[in-house]
Design goal:
Layout lengths: L12 H12 L7 H5 L2 H20 L3 H24 L5 H15 L1 H4 L8 H18 L15 H14 L7 H21 L2 H21 L4 H25 L9 H16 L3
Helix pairs in contact: 1-4, 3-4, 8-10, 9-10, 11-12
Length: 273
């Protein structure tokens, strides 16, 4: 009996993956779980896989990156198959759309424009092309087209960058710091006197202006927070190790002891063994 080229890998990498997804979604012979999915149920997995790609890059784990990129590619194929099943568009339409966009946005590579320009000029040209694309879609507002489904921190950064392009921005970083002090005071007052929804609102205002400070300092707030998360995880793991050496768990410790061990972990990072 001949081998199935889909399951044995001789079908060509991209055609093989597309055929696997088509068979998974086949209403008569496919996988019940895959058949039941729609754009909305798959979207959270798509976001998760994108973050796992970023995590592999952060850790410089290239073998894992290969696998995570495959997982992310599967999400694109899954969405395209759902669209194909509904008669909306196919995977080739997705690939051609991004290819057309890249050609249109790089006239200095694929057209007659000169490549003799700085990276800053290219960024300005890129934004001008994107603005023209938004106008073609009747997205005339400055903030139109900033996806609502983006992670909140990333969306805040994009909204602020858009507003800054038309001059709605603090000219000095010190003014952002003043605003942070103002929002912090309002949050403290809200926590003491206002209901939970107002506390949440004030917390959001503070996070929004903190993102603005990162932008003014030319810091990627998402990358900065990922580093802080990694540092916290690393130091807390050392606390657990030291407690284990003493025959204890964190639950059997207390704040004073763990805080002292935290400071020990900080000092160890400043002066490696």
């Amino acid at each position: 009996m001949p081998k199935d080229p889909t399951t044995h890998g001789s079908h060509g990498s991209m055609p093989r993956l597309l055929e696997i997804m088509r068979r998974l979604r086949d209403p008569d012979s496919g996988c019940p779980w895959d058949i039941e999915q729609d754009f909305g149920t798959i979207a959270p997995y798509t976001i998760e896989e994108a973050y796992e790609v970023a995590d592999a890059i952060e850790r410089a784990d290239w073998d894992e990156l290969r696998g995570e990129l495959g997982d992310l590619l599967l999400q694109v194929v899954f969405h395209a198959q759902i669209a194909d099943d509904r008669g909306l568009f196919a995977f080739d339409d997705v690939a051609n759309a991004i290819a057309d966009k890249m050609v249109a946005r790089h006239p200095h590579v694929f057209g007659d424009e000169s490549r003799d320009k700085s990276a800053e000029q290219q960024t300005r040209d890129w934004e001008a092309i994107k603005a023209a694309e938004r106008a073609d879609k009747a997205q005339t507002g400055v903030l139109d087209g900033v996806a609502v489904g983006l992670p909140a921190l990333l969306r805040a950064l994009k909204l602020q960058k858009r507003a800054a392009r038309v001059g709605f921005d603090w000219p000095e970083t010190t003014q952002v710091l003043d605003k942070i002090a103002e929002e912090s005071a309002e949050l403290v007052e809200a926590a003491e006197t206002l209901p939970q929804d107002k506390i949440e609102e004030e917390m959001g205002d503070l996070l929004f202006v903190m993102t603005n400070l990162a932008r003014h300092l030319e810091v990627d707030p998402e990358a900065a927070l990922r580093r802080a998360n990694a540092k916290f995880t690393r130091r807390f793991a050392r606390i657990e190790d030291w407690l284990a050496e003493a025959g204890k768990t964190p639950e059997q410790s207390d704040l004073a002891e763990m805080d002292a061990l935290w400071n020990r972990a900080k000092a160890a990072e400043r002066t490696p063994d």
